[in-house]
Amino acid sequence: MTNSIAEIEDAACIFVIGTNTTENHPLIARRVFRAKEKGAKLIVADPRNIQLARFADIHVRHRLGSDVALLNGMMHVIIKNDWHAKSYIDERTEGFDELKKVVETYTPDKVEAISGIAQGDLERMAELYATNSPAALLYAMGITQHTTGVDNVKSCCNIAMLCGNVGVRSGGVNPLRGQNNVQGACDMGGLPNVFPAYQPVTVEANNEKFSKAWGKKLPDQIGYTITDMIPAMLNGKLKALYVIGENPMMSDPDQNHINKALEKLELLICQDIFQTETTQKADVVFAAASVAEKEGTFTNTERRCVKVNIAIDPVGNALADWEIISKLSTAMGYKMSYENSEEIFNEMTSVTPSYGGMTYERLGLDGLQWPCPNSEHPGTPFLHKEQFTRGKGMFHAIEYLDPDEMPDDKYPYFLTTGRNFAHFHTGTMTRASAHLHAEQKTGYVELNPEDANKLAVQDGDMVLLSTRRGEMKTPARVTSKVKPGVLFVPFHFAECPANILTNPAFDPIAKIPEFKVCAAKIEKAP
């Protein structure tokens, strides 16, 4: 997030796109409700009639995958009506003329043809966002999990800069992370192309810095993403896989494909706190300590690094993740002899400029938000206050592209996937909870009453869902939450695995699979 969670409640306008915030980020949703109580305008763009839509000043249910067209259309209206922040654009950005040239062609009638959004609704959205400042834009995986995910994110940044909403309190572009330490994992180099703090591995100075710090000459080539790993497993280039706190058998697209890939491995190691569909295929399973059984730090969606403390001793043979990795590394010939997590944290801050001023003592109870470059720095509530990190903010002129798969005669429905309020991700933890399991015991597919009538399907009937990847049986949930022609499946349930259906096509830059849209068929189960 460019801004902080607490700032949301002081925004004059909140634009929520591609995030079911109340179900997936309920504490952040509370800030949205507080902003509404203070008079903020709320815009919700989501193909489903999510709970937050009930409180919106305007809610549009655009066609799956049409986010770029929607955002370009809003920018067209904003520029046409002279609502854009001219002095901000002149002083703090570049590339505006190229953007303007592209969005000029995204007239409301063109956008309606692509997205299904009525022209009047598009104009109303543009007016609310552009004329109520500061405006905060919130998004999640409904924006990123597309073959055009990078384009979608750049378009969100475009509209925020167009209205002068970046570098101001209670504004910004705010991705809501899907797990508690996704931000921290990325910050610490949990990506194949960067060292900690996003220092590229291909830059010689960076490579020398980390080679010296870690006492070992490091590779200078970019590694595999998850979507690169799967074909590498299948063709024999990747022979061993070490999976930590992840369940790819449930979370990666095209389950049949990932299953074949994992079976081709010579060695599969899993490290987790519970058994999962993936640990059941592993050659070795390391028992990891849970959050209550270890000390360390997490960095959340607002860039806040927070210390966690041990509440109970690890159960059985479980060890903290860093202890398992250290023991394995030492056994393989690279000695890791850390005494505790604080020693690792201090090493981390010594090579990570954005964390450079952090210590366990300074983190205290509330933590610190990066960048925090030195011991006197208080942390940074919002980014780009006086200028962008790169100097001037760059507009990107983006053209709309269709999703990889569109409905056709054989597969006439749009299918999208997501989460349910009671469960988290692949259900590894939440389905082990009796109370949460009682809230939602199995998977389902949402379909509109019009479609249900055509198919002679009633609420609770078993239906057969199929795509070009596979098929599954699941109960039907007849609801107006989805529009006619659209199906929604939560992905928490092993007995109704959404990822047996999803498309492995991915964004060419970020390599994120297109979980949010594919073509599907539905029929009453025999």
CATH architecture of the largest domain: 3-Layer(aba) Sandwich
Integer tally of domains: 3
Number of strands: 23
Estimate the strand proportion.
15-25%
Q: Structural class, judged by helices and strands?
A: alpha/beta
- Described by the principal axes of the CA atoms, the overall outline is globular
Number of helices: 19
CATH topology of the largest domain: Rossmann fold
The overall average pLDDT, rounded, is 95
Please compute the radius of gyration using only Cα atoms.
Answer: 24 Å
The top level CATH class name of the largest domain: Alpha Beta
State the separation between the terminal residues, measured CA to CA.
48 Å
pLDDT < 50 runs, ≥5 residues: none
In order across it, which strands form the biggest sheet?
16-20-17-19-18-23
Helix content bin: 25-40%
Largest sheet: 6 strands, mixed, barrel
Description:
- The protein has 19 helices and 23 strands.
- It is an alpha/beta fold and 526 residues long.
- It folds into three domains: 171 residues, Dimethylsulfoxide Reductase, domain 2 (3-Layer(aba) Sandwich), CATH 3.40.228; 188 residues, 3-Layer(aba) Sandwich (Rossmann fold), CATH 3.40.50; 112 residues, Barwin-like endoglucanases.
- The chain has a six-stranded mixed barrel.
- It is globular.
- The termini are far apart.
